[in-house]
Amino acid sequence: MPEQLANQQAALARIQGFLSDSTERVLIGIIGKPGAGKSTLSKFLMSKLPKEFVTVVPMDGYHLSNKVLKDLKRADRKGAPDTFDVAGFASLVKRIRSEQTQNIYYPIFDRAIEESIAAQGVVTSDTKVVIIEGNYLLHDAGGWEAVKDLLDESWMVDVDDDKRIARLISRHIAYGKEPEAAKAWAKGTDEANAQLIERGRARADFVVRID
After folding, report:
1. Which residues, other chains included, contact 137 with Cβ-Cβ below 8 Å and sequence gap of 6+?
2. In terms of pTM, does the model score above 0.85?
3. Which residues pair with residue 154 across a beta bridge?
4. Residue 49 to residue 94: CA distance in whole angstroms
């Protein structure tokens, strides 16, 4: 079973230790169910850490486009493991690990338009710690299983499920869904994905509690 990192401060202290002690680039995966607080944790860490040496790389930039999802008849499951360019994402993580003397650009998902923007983010050659944020970094099927071994550590974000689902519904409403549609998506598609993500908990190195 994974060890506990009691809270965000403990997570921060661990990364500060890597910055002080590591001579090689360190890759840390932050995993969690939809609405668990992955971005909340990442934003907290980045507010306390030197941005020239620490970068957050979200997995969401590798969403398949809405057109591709429609063509594949997967638009109603957007966010499921097979609605991402898994091979492309795994290749990015490999590059981040192996190509440490050049800048590496990656796409960023824009929630306002529900699409990714190419080369919006960058991991510079100065980056010492890369926080890789995503739902399926511990998933064991569909090509995702290649990702875990590329990470130095994997952290599962833990939060009360009622709070997480309420947060998800509010997020969906904020981005344009009607309240009933937001509730249906959070308790349907999102919850099916959450159950898949929960299966990876035992493979995490640490669990970080977010209140």
Report:
1. 29, 30, 31, 59, 144, 147, 148, 151, 154, 200
2. yes
3. 29
4. 24
